Amino acid sequence: MSLQLEIGGGIVRELASWLAGLTLTVATIRYCYLIYLGRIKSSPAGWMIAAIAITIGYFAYWETSNPTWLGNIGQLLGAIEIWFVLGVLMWSLHRKNELGVEFDRFQWGCLLASLATVALWKFTNRPDVAFVLLQVILVISYIAVVGKLITWKDNHDYTPMWVAIFTTSVFGFVPALMDRDSFGIINSIRAILASGITTVIMLRLDSRKKSNTPL
């Protein structure tokens, strides 16, 4: 019986990981295509901060005890997605001769704090502390994003992308929970809450736009 449960659990872990990867891949390709068409205009600064923080966090994760590929699959997929979107965004801006990255003071603070965790990690040899601090930095930087979102009168982003990120985060939570991977669980909960709140805000914006559209 225990062997059957172990086999069944392994299938669930792998299935959830594959579904997470497939969901995010399809959505990212569509999102990047819309960036290429110019339908989505976004500042590279926020993407760059997220890319750096998540990537450092992922490398820190592999220095913790008992890291696994599936236990923190959500963070790996998130890092790949963000770097890919950032690359397409930068290329699209360059193609239009609009390339430029401007950070405000808050963004500079988040960026420098992310880089400072590397020094802390190497100085104290505590990758676990660096990982948690980077999650905190991502939460703090996200608060500023929410602050901007709630001032929008129209949705300037692509709601299905955030639905996909939320879905991916939920799928990624499954292997983290089954592996009892505390770091994977922390990352998944952060991602679920962040993407979930963003999705709700964007759905409300979409609903408001439809209700204001004359028949």
Fold blueprint:
Blueprint: H1 2-37, H2 44-61, H3 73-95, H4 105-124, H5 127-149, H6 159-178, H7 182-212
Instruction: Work out the helix count.
Output: 7
Q: How much of the sequence is in beta strands?
A: under 5%
Mean pLDDT: 89
- As a percent range, the share of helical residues equals over 70%
Shape: globular
Give the class from helix and strand content and strand pairing: mainly alpha
The count of DSSP E runs of length 2 or more, i.e. the number of strands, is 0
Which residues form runs of ≥5 with pLDDT under 50? Answer: 1-7
Rg to the nearest angstrom?
18 Å
User: Span from first to last CA?
Assistant: 60 Å
- The tally of domains stands at 1
The string of secondary-structure elements, in order, is HHHHHHH
Report on the biggest sheet: none
Transmembrane segments: 15-33, 45-61, 73-93, 129-147, 159-178, 184-205
Keywords: Membrane, Transmembrane, Transmembrane helix
